[in-house]
Specification:
Helices cover 55% and strands 12% of the residues. It is built from 38 helices and 17 strands.
């Protein structure tokens, strides 16, 4: 009787259904989601037609069927997978026979287990076998509850929301009671991805929502006599707890234990559970991977994977069944905007999804298989370039990546291949090869954009080579460097404020003693505008640069100018540029012995060493081998090196050849007089160089380093929903690391800010990039029509995407919201009679101010409040709600939410999906208040029809701090 009680009150495992072979299909379950003219019942899409017969009290059409109603539909499945019903019956879900018995019994079992803090079951002799202790809180519990929250259908009211408990055991299992208690074994949690776990939990949740305990009891009344005998036997048990559990088992008639759930109920749980996972934004294609794991661990016929003989399929059968169900019901399950029309395109889309999920091994396998697929040569070339990137950047296989890119240069898109090769060679300091590859890219470029990228790649290679020569004691000036300066200056003049060209131009100008150009580069980098104050932490140094740079290269230049210029550059957080001044072979011998110069040189070298170590840590992390201790030690090494330089225990390095050995000497000499704590090191870095160090675990990323340099600090008062807090706003630049995700995604979605209970931080470079992109979209009359045509094209595809996934990423909608926000800023400034360069400068400043208020002050400010108050609700979800509810321009604040991360397993992805679900629900409830809404179309693509105040209201309606009776703080 080892499994008697657990099997009785719990629902175990999953199977995927095989639909009938007849043309007519029959579905029976609950109305769980509405998608325009489609009702989702029993995991299937059901649509009526003009001749559909409706049965039920006051049931006249699909619109009259409330979510949560019992529904039975009969009809035929069309080519798109929708069941077109000829007959639909519907009625409210009421209390049925045995329902109260099931609730009473399972409530008692739950109470006993929770009170005892362990899950156990009685044996035949009355003894107890403990399955595992019960865990009710912690990161694992939070993870599982977040998944279940995403899976739950909308008709579950507050009283019917499932409760989640963890059972500490290495076995792989999950189970659900008829009263809504869900039990998940920790072995399963630790071994499954979010997608895989969602499929298991979806199955268990379906057993609860579809009342299978009660239905099985009703179908097995003939077992009552056996139940009566067991009840009498239970009274003879000595242990009170064992007797209670056994009595509950007997009261249910031993229905589940005797034979397990029937095959029909298991099939239904599979269909419905898979739909729950899909609607929750999870990848239901992971089901095949899930059962492959079970097969590898338990085999084909182990009792864990095949619980009840005859009722469940073997893992291999389940994999085939899942594939069949995916083909019938989820052909368009990929949430990305890529619309694949061939197997090769689909592979690229799948590889992109794996990359976003940081599953590099899977991405590599997909791309390797794609190499053999037929398709357009341009796509085949893209496969080769991406494989080469994986080779050298993630797997550290430099030569294979180099060889692959060389082969790709003879195919289509040769400029792209040469650019990728130039990047590889520059990363490995092979400057000559990097310049050759960039030159070839220039010759092959056939568009203005490719030409600009090739020019920049060539300039980078030349300037970096010259800087390396300068650090080795050479002058480093050359005709190639002068040509690079001219190219970079043209880029900066064409787009003032663009950060990478401005920074590289500053470097080139300093190497060539071009103080006038260096002044232009400095002003461009920090968007220096007449009448607008400099960031306060660098204001004094910036004013010195304004006075010193025009003198660089003049006959009056001397050692004092170089020393002062070094200090001003470092004060503006240009440490590498400042160090280059000291390595000038024409400088006075004693310049490098100056205390300030020595510290700048040591700090610059330590920063470059740290960047290399951090990148290696992130590379190992994405491959699953990162050691968090190594990251902390790398930052500590930097601190100790600087500590030694500041307190006179080391000499500055002479050149690249002696840099590492001297750094080691600094570390060794500092050991004897090392500071008492890491905080003392960080304080020194903050005092001397404005360094901000944050080592912390980031949800969804792991152990991260966020490190940059303070350019502004100010006090801000943040007020939200009756809470007021005073916080220190810190703006960072000259970033050393923006975290693992930024590295893994190569800056495409970088960290914009973060927070502590007393501080909120903004990463300035991310905001500058966004502002420039915004100006290009609306301020350039040449490119604006092209963008608007693309926006229109994507918008036409959104309706199809929304029908496949009503909460997924809609590129057209995202582009429209972005464009509308840009136009709001532009039109407001045009009313002030601004034009030309003044209009551009004002637009960039206004954009950054507006987005700072929403994404930093509102979003990170909410994080700071919630960290102080130790709230129980999901903090990332709440912060995103505040970001929009308190935004100066709600449309612009949607950009980080309406993104391709919707539904990913990261905290941001889960929060974004929950918001999409809430927005659709709000729009559905307020249909009559939305001007121009098409009632027949999907709702989410029409989100931009809401006014700004309606957008704020929709976000406020979801805030957990405002929900009636919701506990906000601990």
């Amino acid at each position: 009787m080892l499994r008697s009680v657990v099997g009785l009150v719990l629902v175990l495992a999953v199977v995927v259904p095989v639909l009938g072979a007849t043309n007519e299909e029959h579905v029976k379950g609950y109305a769980e989601w509405r998608r325009g003219d489609i009702l989702i019942v029993e995991g299937q899409l059901v649509r009526a037609h003009p001749g559909t017969q409706f049965k039920g009290d006051r049931i006249r059409g699909l619109d009259s069927i409330a979510l949560g109603y019992e529904v039975e539909a009969k009809g035929e499945r069309d080519k798109s997978g929708v069941i077109v019903a000829r007959e639909i019956k519907a009625k409210p879900n009421g209390n049925a026979m045995f329902e109260s018995d099931v609730l009473d019994a399972t409530n008692e079992i739950e109470r006993v287990w929770v009170d005892q803090g362990r899950m156990f079951e009685p044996g035949e002799d009355g003894s107890e076998r403990t399955i595992g202790r019960i865990i009710e809180s912690g990161p694992q519990a939070d993870r599982v509850r977040a998944i279940v929250h995403r899976l739950a259908p909308p008709y579950l009211d507050a009283e019917r929301q499932p409760r989640v408990y963890l059972v500490d055991t290495e076995e792989w299992n999950a189970a659900a009671m008829g009263n809504g208690a869900i039990w998940v074994y920790t072995g399963l949690i630790e071994s499954m991805s979010d997608d895989e776990l969602a499929i298991v939990l979806g199955h268990e949740l379906a057993h609860y929502t579809h009342e299978h305990s009660r239905r099985q009891a009703k179908s097995s009344m003939w077992r009552g006599l056996l139940g009566l005998g067991a009840l009498i036997a239970a009274q003879a048990l000595d242990d009170d707890t064992a007797r209670t559990v056994a009595t509950v088992a007997a009261g249910l008639g031993l229905t589940v234990w005797g034979s397990g759930y029937s095959r029909d109920l298991e099939d239904q749980a599979d269909r419905v559970g898979l739909r729950y996972a899909h609607e929750g934004g999870f990848d239901v294609g992971a089901g095949t991977r899930l059962w492959g794991k079970f097969r590898d661990r338990y085999g084909e016929s182990d009792s864990v994977t095949n619980f009840f003989v005859g009722s469940h399929s073997r893992p291999s059968d389940r994999i085939r069944n899942i594939e069949r169900e995916l083909d019938r019901n989820y052909p368009a399950r990929t949430p990305w905007s890529f619309e694949p029309t061939s197997e090769l395109e689909a592979s690229l889309a799948a590889a992109t999804a794996a990359n976003v999920a940081h599953d590099i091994d899977r991405e590599h396998r997909i791309l390797e298989r794609a190499e053999a697929l037929p398709g357009p040569a341009t796509l085949a070339a893209a496969v080769q370039r991406q494989l080469a990137l994986l080779d050298w950047r993630y797997y550290a296989r430099i030569q294979p990546g180099r060889e692959r890119l060389h082969r790709a240069t003879s195919g289509p898109d040769p400029a792209e291949a040469w650019l990728a090769l130039s990047r590889l060679e520059l990363a490995t300091h092979n400057h000559a090869a990097a310049r050759v590859a960039a030159d070839r890219a220039l010759l092959a470029a056939d568009t203005r954009a490719l030409l600009a990228r090739a020019q920049f790649a060539l300039a980078q290679a030349v300037v970096d080579q010259a800087a390396r020569a300068r650090r080795a004691g050479e002058l480093g000036q050359s005709n190639a460097l002068r040509a690079a300066l001219d190219a970079l200056l043209a880029m900066v003049n064409a787009e003032p404020g663009s950060l990478p060209p401005s920074r590289w131009l500053l470097r080139a100008a300093l190497l060539l003693d071009r103080g006038d150009v260096a002044l232009r580069a400095w002003r461009s980098y920090y968007h220096v505008i007449a009448g607008r104050p400099l960031p306060n932490a660098i204001a004094a140094a910036g004013e010195r640069l304004e006075n010193l740079l025009p003198r660089l290269g003049s006959p009056a230049a001397d050692a004092t100018l170089q020393r002062d210029l070094m200090g001003a550059l470092a004060g503006c957080r240009f440490f590498e540029e400042a160090a280059l001044m000291a390595f000038d072979p024409r400088a006075e011998t004693g310049l490098r012995d100056d205390s300030q110069a020595r510290q700048i040189i040591v700090y610059d070298q330590a920063l470059r060493d740290l960047r290399a170590r951090v990148e290696e840590y992130y590379r190992r992390t994405i491959l699953g081998a990162g050691d968090p201790a190594s990251l902390t030690e790398s930052v500590r090494t930097l601190g100790l090196t600087v500590w030694a330089a500041v307190y006179g225990h080391s000499d500055a390095p002479e050149s690249d050849e002696t840099e590492r050995s001297n750094s080691g000497e600094a570390e060794a000499s500092a050991e004897s007089e090392a500071p008492g704590s890491d905080e003392a090191l960080w304080a020194l870095l903050r005092e001397r160089f404005g360094t901000s160090v944050r080592l912390a675990r980031t949800p969804g990323s792991g152990y991260d380093l966020h490190m940059g340099h303070v350019i502004e600090a100010q006090t801000r008062i943040v007020q939200q929903y009756g809470r007021t807090v005073e916080l220190r706003l810190v703006i960072l630049d000259s970033m050393v690391s923006q975290g693992f995700t930024d590295w893994a995604w190569e800056g495409r979605t970088g960290t914009r800010g973060y927070s502590s209970p007393t501080m909120i931080y903004q990463v300035r470079p991310a905001f500058v990039v966004e502002a420039l992109q915004a100006w290009r979209s609306v301020g350039n009359p040449r490119t604006r029509p092209q963008l608007e045509r693309r926006m229109q094209h994507e918008s036409t595809l959104d309706e199809q995407r929304a029908r496949a996934n009503p909460y997924g990423y809609l590129p057209g909608l995202a582009m429209r919201l972005r464009h509308q926000g840009y136009v709001q800023i532009l039109e407001g400034l045009e009313l002030e009679a601004l034009s030309g360069d003044n209009l551009r400068a004002a637009f960039l400043a206004q954009y950054q101010d507006d987005v700072r208020e929403s994404s930093i002050v509102a979003h990170e400010g909410r994080h700071a409040m919630d960290l102080r108050d130790r709230v129980r609700y999901p903090r990332e979800f709440a912060a995103k709600l505040s970001e929009v509810a308190f935004a100066p321009r709600p449309r612009l604040s949607m950009l980080a939410i309406m993104s391709s991360t919707i539904g990913t397993s990261s905290p941001h992805g889960r929060a974004n999906l929950a918001i999409m679900q809430g927005l659709v629900a709000w729009m559905d409830e307020h249909r009559d208040q939305i001007a121009g809404l098409d009632p027949q179309g999907p709702l989410l693509p029409q989100f931009d029809r809401l006014t700004d105040e309606q957008i704020r209201a929709a976000f406020r309606s979801m805030d957990p701090a405002l929900l009636p009776g919701a506990p906000a703080v601990q």
